[in-house]
Structures are given as C-alpha cells and as structure tokens.
TrEMBL record:
<dbReference type="Pfam" id="PF01509">
    <property type="entry name" value="TruB_N"/>
</dbReference>
<comment type="function">
    <text>Responsible for synthesis of pseudouridine from uracil-55 in the psi GC loop of transfer RNAs.</text>
</comment>
<dbReference type="GO" id="GO:1990481">
    <property type="term" value="P:mRNA pseudouridine synthesis"/>
</dbReference>
<dbReference type="InterPro" id="IPR020103">
    <property type="entry name" value="PsdUridine_synth_cat_dom_sf"/>
</dbReference>
<dbReference type="Pfam" id="PF16198">
    <property type="entry name" value="TruB_C_2"/>
</dbReference>
<feature type="active site" description="Nucleophile">
    <location>
        <position position="44"/>
    </location>
</feature>
<dbReference type="InterPro" id="IPR002501">
    <property type="entry name" value="PsdUridine_synth_N"/>
</dbReference>
<feature type="domain" description="Pseudouridine synthase II N-terminal">
    <location>
        <begin position="29"/>
        <end position="185"/>
    </location>
</feature>
<dbReference type="Pfam" id="PF09142">
    <property type="entry name" value="TruB_C"/>
</dbReference>
<dbReference type="InterPro" id="IPR036974">
    <property type="entry name" value="PUA_sf"/>
</dbReference>
<feature type="domain" description="tRNA pseudouridylate synthase B C-terminal">
    <location>
        <begin position="186"/>
        <end position="229"/>
    </location>
</feature>
<dbReference type="InterPro" id="IPR014780">
    <property type="entry name" value="tRNA_psdUridine_synth_TruB"/>
</dbReference>
<dbReference type="InterPro" id="IPR015947">
    <property type="entry name" value="PUA-like_sf"/>
</dbReference>
<comment type="similarity">
    <text>Belongs to the pseudouridine synthase TruB family. Type 1 subfamily.</text>
</comment>
<dbReference type="GO" id="GO:0160148">
    <property type="term" value="F:tRNA pseudouridine(55) synthase activity"/>
</dbReference>
<dbReference type="InterPro" id="IPR015225">
    <property type="entry name" value="tRNA_psdUridine_synth_fam2_C"/>
</dbReference>
<dbReference type="GO" id="GO:0003723">
    <property type="term" value="F:RNA binding"/>
</dbReference>
Length: 298
C-alpha cells in the first residue's frame, strides 16, 4: 500500500532481523508516502525489536526524545570470540567454557554493571577522524577505540545452557540488560567472555524498550503494510516529555517567539500544549523565562 498524505507522528517498529535501520526507513517512506522519515537509536542488522521512526513533523522530534534508557534481551555465547563481537563475524578463538561456574559468571556480570568504561566494538558506526570505525576495519587498518562512560543499570542472567553441537564446549547465557544510550551489548558479551578467560560474543539481540516506547506498542512491517498508522505527534510528545498546558494568550506569545515567564518546569525539554490540545513546542526554562527549543506549527 502507498499513502498519499502522511500524518505527523511516531511509528514504533518491531524491526526484523537481517534489515538495517536505514532499510526500515526506506520501507517506511514508501508506506507513508513521504521522504520526511527518520529514525532514532540505530539497531544492527542482526538485532530485532523496537526502532523509533519519525514521520513528517515528528522527524524534528527525534533529536529531542529522551531515549536515554534502553532494554534488551540477548544471548551471550561464552567460549568463542568473533571479529565483530557478534554472530555475524568470523570466529577468531575458541575455548572450553563448560567448566565456568555460575558464581564466576555472576561475578563477571557484576563487574560490568553500574557506571563503567566501555570500549565499543571496532565494527561499529563510531567515527575516528571522520571515518566510520567499521570502514577502517574493512580496509585492514590497525587502531584502537577509546573507552567511553556508559551505565548498565541491570545485567541479569535468565538461563544458562550448553551451546548447540556446532559450538562444542561453549555455553549460552540468556540475559536481560537495561542500559544507557550508547552502550554496546555485543561489547558486554565480549568483555564478559574476556574477563572469564574463555572469550564471548553475542548470538541474539532483541531491543524491548527505548525510553517510554516498548514492544507492547510496536508493529511489524507486515502489520504496517496491512494498516499504516502513526502515534500522533501529540501523543508521542505527551509520552516522552513533561507536559505544560497553556492558555490562548500564552500560546500566541510563544508562537511569536516571545519569552514569557516560566512556571516551575522540570529539567530538560517540556512539551507545550495549547487550549485545543494541539502540541505547539518544546521549551526549557532559562533564568526564569521560557526558552523555545523547537516549534511545531500546523
């Protein structure tokens, strides 16, 4: 199906495996009937789950969304390291992990929980002197990435089991992770395996939540093909930001860029709604006055 008029709003997509985030955007452009489509929070092709898509005016909302906390379910394989730290890369080393005890696994996970310094996977989109890290890897360049501060709020083992027969001696861990934006789950798998002395990589990854948006509100591409719909921009803004309802005069002043006295606003952007319920702008408090971050005219 193809739409001739695209409404402004967000679409929470349940991304399938094997498709890039940009590939999802391309599909959504066709479904929405507009090129004004963008995404927030890239997922690797192997990964599935929540991908936030903005359509029309909501593309301007993406950069302001408080998508700082993310939740994943994943499978970590202990006993094998790969060049990409996940199942898409060539195995570079193998070890027998069958003797690794649960106590050691728990201790290794504890060391990777909380505020940590994490070195991203080299096969990532991080830029080094303006060039993507994965491009440098493909060109055979030798380099090191700097560690970055991230926060792993929780890292929990749900199950421990032997890996399939094609990975003798390896052990699979089903885990759940809640972490800050910028955390690489495959780097957690790599570092857990390295700390246990047996190597590790990620074999499955599913993102279950990004900020306030979860799988319960996500739709597959097949569902969107059957019935395309967006989360209206008003609903999306109300879910992601503190809300401030203004009267007609305040709405008029804000629309004209006039700085008005601010109420006690929460830190960070606040969504402003007019008396008719329409989403008008994102604002912040500065020196007791309202600073406009972005406006969303009709």
């Amino acid at each position: 199906m193809t739409r001739t008029t695209a409404p402004s709003g967000l679409v929470v997509v349940d991304k399938p495996g094997g498709l890039t985030s940009h590939g999802v955007v391309s599909r959504m452009r066709r479904l929405a009937g507009t090129r004004r489509v963008g995404h927030a929070g890239t997922l690797d092709p192997m990964a599935t789950g929540v991908l936030i898509i903005g359509v029309e005016k909501a593309t301007r909302l993406l950069g302001h969304l408080a998508l700082t906390e993310k939740e994943y379910v994943a499978t970590v394989r202990l006993g094998q390291s790969t060049v990409t730290d996940d199942a898409e890369g060539e195995v570079t080393s193998s070890a027998d992990a069958s003797g690794v005890t649960r106590d050691r696994i728990d201790a290794g996970i504890a060391a990777l929980t909380g505020p940590i310094q994490q070195v991203p996977s080299k096969v990532s989109a991080i830029k080094v002197n303006g060039v993507r890290s994965y491009t440098r890897v493909r060109e055979g360049e030798e380099f090191e990435l700097a560690a970055r501060p991230v926060t792993v709020s929780s890292f929990t083992v749900q199950d421990v089991r032997p890996a399939p027969a094609d990975a003798p001696g390896a052990v699979d861990l089903d885990v759940t992770v809640v972490c800050s934006s910028g955390t690489y789950i495959r780097a957690l798998a790599r570092d857990l395996g390295a700390g246990l002395g047996v190597g590790g990589h990620l074999t499955a990854l599913r993102r279950t939540r990004v900020g306030p948006y979860g799988l319960d509100g996500a739709r597959t591409l097949e569902q969107l093909e059957e019935s395309f719909a967006v989360l209206p921009i008003e609903n999306a803004a109300a879910a992601a930001f503190p809300r401030w309802d203004v009267d007609a005069e305040q709405a008029r002043l804000l629309a004209n860029g006039v700085r008005i006295k601010a109420p006690a606003l929460a830190a960070g952007p606040t969504a402003v709604f007019g008396p008719d319920g329409r989403f008008l702008a994102l604002v912040e408090e500065k020196d007791g006055q309202v600073k406009i971050v972005a406006v969303f005219p009709e």
